[in-house]
Specification:
The complex is a heterodimer of chains A (363) and B (530). Chain A is an alpha+beta fold. Chain A folds into two domains: 257 residues, MetI-like fold; 72 residues. Chain A has eleven helices and four strands. Chain A has a four-stranded antiparallel sheet with strand order 1-2-4-3, with helices on one face. The two termini of chain A are 19 Å apart. Chain B is α/β, with parallel strands linked by helices. In chain B, the strands form four sheets. Chain B has a six-stranded mixed sheet with strand order 6-7-8-3-9-10. Chain B has a six-stranded mixed sheet with strand order 16-17-18-13-19-20, sandwiched between helices. A four-stranded antiparallel sheet of chain B has the order 2-1-4-5, covered by helices on one side. In chain B, α5 crosses α7, α8 packs across α21 and α16 packs across α17. The longest helix of chain B has 18 residues. The two termini of chain B are 21 Å apart. The chains are: A alpha+beta (363), B alpha/beta (530). At the A-B interface, α1, α8 and α9 of A face α1, α13, β16 and α15 of B.
Chain lengths: 363, 530
């Protein structure tokens, strides 16, 4: 006789720990999703805005520009305008005095406007027939939490925008794979016999197609499009799902409760929907949590090859590829997107483990 | 026992707890040399936990306290190494599930040989010779050939014999048998029981025999200890326990031998008639082998009157369940079936659907027959969704309450999942699912076999009540003639897909013609008449 009650208590204790880690992963995922949704709205930078004066800025908690950057920008400006600039250090508004041999054209002051450091300049006084100008130039304060990339775009905004793309691709493509895979697998497994063999051979044929070849053909036929990534990845990833669901269905349809439903006169779709799929949900959910990170990685790979998301839109995979190229000079380009991708994948994995263990227990 | 022999195993104040739950509570037990002590109790009473704890075979988180002395050695304080030296050599165990007790990857000979080499220190050749000897001792025919067999090539009874051969390999002084016959067919179980009694006699070992069946242990036990809720509530010599049970738990176990159904003869119309039913399964041969067909049911004819019960008896694999499914047209079958005057043979799936209402099925395993993903109310009302799709959610809920009340369950259970219910409760839910459609014919496929005896009686009483109230007709399938005798008006005995004997219940039980029927009867009623 095996007496399950005491063992159940022990596994409940082990389950509590797993529950805790599942809760932690869920909140990490929720936090990342929330950041990706509202972060770009409040970061203050469009994801495709180029700050030419802030190329490869290091991450910092303080707003730019600092004094050194102002000095440098002012001297660069002086060289370009062929003037001598004396700047005073005076809070938000810079008082500057411009001196030159010839009269200064006020239009030259637009250079300040074009700069990312300064707001438009205002002439306070003009002396020596315009050879000496006193101007007020307010500073433009900008914050780059994660620094900027090689094109001078804000990395914080770009990581979050990339997160939107990656998560959307991950979820949508997984959803595509889920729907097709579950339907196909359940039908094949439940029908059994020749139909099952036929459907599974079809899957094996699709399996034999190289994925990248498939993506290239799709791009050639339909052109580059965001939706194409969902379609391509979903079309490949449902194969595994279908196999898993078919295997589950094969064992579930032998169970007595399916025979009981048949004896009640339930129709085949009803049996699939009410009995087979809910009871296969454990492995399905577990596989789904493996599938989502796999799809995110696949999308990164496709984008890395230049077949996926195109600039200036970006995804975590693209950002990481970018960061890897700049690993020597500015490692922050690699660290931040990798951190986000890693946290997401890790949380999904932990969730998957939890669901799998739960599925085993309930059987 | 003529003179009190020396104690071989003594448990004093044994306590086993899983966290806060205490499963064995202050248990005292004394087993003498050469004695057979039986521990009897319902599932969950702590029988297995007691012996597993005594041999320190429980997971490490489990807290065991008290004292266990084997001869003069305190087992609970022994080092793991010295304990391992004792286990297998001086103390051996036989488990309930013979198939899972053997390693499927090794041959029988290799497994017994491994025990002999490790525990008895024999060389390879000597081990093989001894293994052969042990197999023939355990009553396995052609031991030479069986040495090279894998467990899956053997039947359940043969596997249990192999497990016994392994257990007695080193001539242990104490053999612990944990429900060794529960998973086996009755006739096989009787033979295993005889074997154990014989081996005990010839090897002079002591035995602890764990069982839920008081009737079963009567034949072999010298003393009986009845357990309930982790405590021994009554101990005594076997004869004394049977003639003079003192504790309620013992009386309950004794009483659960079901009584025979009174013989009533009425003239009612025929509800179900089947002629020459055959079910074949195609077995795929090997890679190049030809396809073979296996006749699960072969030319069975029967007829059943309204409001009566047909008992279908036979061992596992005799085709009882397949026949039942064929009668309900759940598996394709040849032959003629007429239900209430309608010929079912020509009806396709869709045409059968309205008829399904009046023919229902209840399964053996209440754990497997309820979908674990559905709530009780959804399970019970599934038939209504099929046959009365028009009724709304509230009406369905009302009907679920009524159906649960009819099977004497608390209607509040309808919001639970099956895993939160006990075995008996689940079987009542399964019966409610069948009854909600007000069927005329119910096929009960071993409805009580997975349940404890006391729960069994409750379910059988419920089924009889329902039969009375609704004029139901039952086909009651069981391997246990004692249960069949209690419920059936007529009995059909099945063997290898054929009905070998058929007739009124009383006649079959009292004057069996076939030797096979006689074997079944002696196995089922061994306690009363033997």
């Amino acid at each position: 006789m095996n007496e399950p009650a005491p063992m159940a208590q022990l596994s409940a204790a082990a389950g509590a720990l797993r529950n805790w880690s599942m809760l932690a992963s869920l909140s990490i995922l929720g936090l990342i999703a929330l950041l990706c949704l509202i972060g770009p709205l409040i970061s203050g930078h469009p994801y495709d805005q180029v700050y030419r004066d802030y190329v490869l800025v290091r991450p910092s908690l303080f707003a730019h520009p600092d004094w050194a950057e102002v000095e440098e920008a002012v001297s660069a400006m002086a060289r370009r305008m062929h003037v001598r600039i004396e700047a005073s250090r005076d809070g938000e508004i810079r008082h500057m005095t411009l001196e030159a041999a010839k009269p200064i054209d006020p239009r030259a002051l637009r250079a300040f406007e074009r700069s990312d450091l300064f707001a438009p300049a205002r002439i306070v006084a003009s002396k020596d027939e315009g050879r000496r100008l006193a101007i007020d130039v307010p500073l433009k304060r900008t914050l780059f939490l994660f620094g900027t990339d090689a094109n001078g775009r804000d990395l914080f905004t770009r990581v979050l925008i990339a997160g939107r793309v990656s998560l959307a691709v991950g979820l949508l493509a997984s959803f595509v794979a889920l729907t097709i895979g579950v339907a196909y697998g359940a039908v094949a497994g439940y029908a059994g016999g020749r139909i099952d063999s036929l459907m599974m051979r079809a899957i094996e044929i699709i399996y034999a197609l190289p994925f990248i070849f498939f993506v290239i053909v799709l791009v050639m036929v339909f052109g580059r499009h965001f939706v194409l990534i969902f379609a391509a990845i979903g079309a490949v990833e449902w194969l595994d799902m279908a196999r898993i669901v078919r295997g589950q269905t094969l064992s579930i349809k032998q169970r007595d409760f399916v025979a009981a439903a048949e004896a009640l006169g339930a129709t085949t779709p009803a049996i699939l929907w009410r009995h087979v799929i809910p009871n296969a949900s454990g492995p399905i959910i577990a596989y789904l949590t493996v599938l989502v990170p796999r799809v995110i990685l696949l999308e990164s790979f496709v984008s890395f090859l230049g077949l996926g998301v195109q600039e200036p839109l970006t995804s975590w995979g693209v950002l990481i590829a970018d960061g890897a190229r700049n690993i020597q000079g500015s490692i922050h380009l690699l660290i931040f997107p990798a951190l986000f991708l890693g946290a997401t994948l890790g949380a999904l994995q932990t969730l998957g483990d939890g669901f799998r263990a739960h599925g085993l227990r309930s059987r | 026992m003529s003179s009190p022999a020396k104690p071989i195993l003594q448990l004093r104040d044994l306590q086993v707890s899983y966290g806060k739950a205490r499963v064995v509570n202050g248990l005292n037990l004394l087993v003498r040399r050469g004695e057979t002590a039986a521990i009897v109790g319902e599932s969950g009473s702590g029988k297995s936990q007691t012996v597993l704890a005594a041999l320190r075979l429980l997971p490490r988180q489990v807290v065991t306290s008290g004292s266990v002395t084997f001869e003069d050695t305190e087992l609970l304080a022994l080092s793991q190494r010295r304990l391992n030296a004792l286990l297998g050599r001086r103390i051996a165990m036989v488990f309930q599930e013979p198939m899972s007790a053997l390693d499927p990857l090794f041959t029988v000979g290799a497994q017994i040989g491994a025990v002999l080499r490790l525990k008895a220190g024999l060389r390879r050749g000597a081990a093989k010779a001894r293994a052969k000897e042990l197999l023939s001792l355990a009553g396995i025919a052609e031991p030479e050939r069986r040495l090279n067999a894998y467990p899956h090539e053997l039947s359940g009874g043969q596997c249990q014999r192999v497990a016994i051969a392994m257990a007695i390999a080193c001539n242990p002084d104490l053999l612990i048998a944990d429900e060794p016959t529960t998973a086996l067919d009755v006739t096989v179980a009787a033979k295993i029981l005889d074997l154990l009694a014989k081996l005990k006699q010839s090897l002079g070992m002591a035995m602890i025999f764990i069982s839920h069946d008081l009737g079963l242990v009567r034949r072999i036990a010298d003393s009986i200890h009845v357990m309930r809720d982790g405590e021994i509530v009554e101990s005594g010599a076997t004869g004394e326990i049977f003639s003079n049970p003192r504790h309620d738990a013992t009386r309950l176990l004794l009483e659960t031998m079901p009584r025979a159904r009174p013989h009533i003869r009425t003239d009612t119309p025929v509800l179900l008639r089947a002629e020459n039913i055959g079910v074949r399964f195609a077995l795929r041969g090997g890679l190049f082998g030809a396809r073979r067909t296996f006749k699960a049911v072969d030319g069975v004819s029967l007829s059943l009157d309204c409001g009566r019960t047909l008992g279908l008896v036979g061992e596992s694999g005799s085709g009882k369940s397949t026949l039942a499914r064929a009668l309900l047209k759940l598996v394709p079958a040849s032959g003629m079936i007429s239900f209430n005057g309608r010929d079912l043979a020509w009806l396709d799936k869709a045409a059968m659907r309205p008829l399904r209402r009046s023919m229902q099925l209840v399964f053996q395993d209440p754990y497997g027959s309820l979908s674990p993903a559905m709530r009780v109310s959804d399970i019970v009302t599934e038939g209504l969704r099929v046959h009365e799709p028009a009724i709304g959610r509230q009406e369905r809920d009302k009907r679920a309450v009524l159906a649960l009340q009819e099977v004497l369950l608390d209607p509040d259970l309808r919001h639970r999942f099956p895993r939160e219910l006990s075995g008996g409760q689940r079987q009542r839910v399964a019966i409610a699912r069948a009854m909600i459609l007000k069927p005329r014919l119910v096929v009960l496929d071993e409805p009580t076999s997975a349940l404890d005896r006391s729960v069994q009686t409750g379910i059988i009483a419920l089924l009889e009540e329902l039969q009375e109230a609704h004029g139901l007709t039952y086909v009651f399938i069981s391997h246990d003639l004692a249960v069949i005798r209690a419920v059936a008006d007529e009995i059909a005995v099945m063997k290898d897909g054929r009905i070998v004997e058929q007739g009124p219940a009383q006649e079959i039980v009292e004057h069996p013609r076939e030797p096979y029927t006689r074997a079944l009867i002696s196995a089922a009623f061994q306690t009363g008449e033997a």
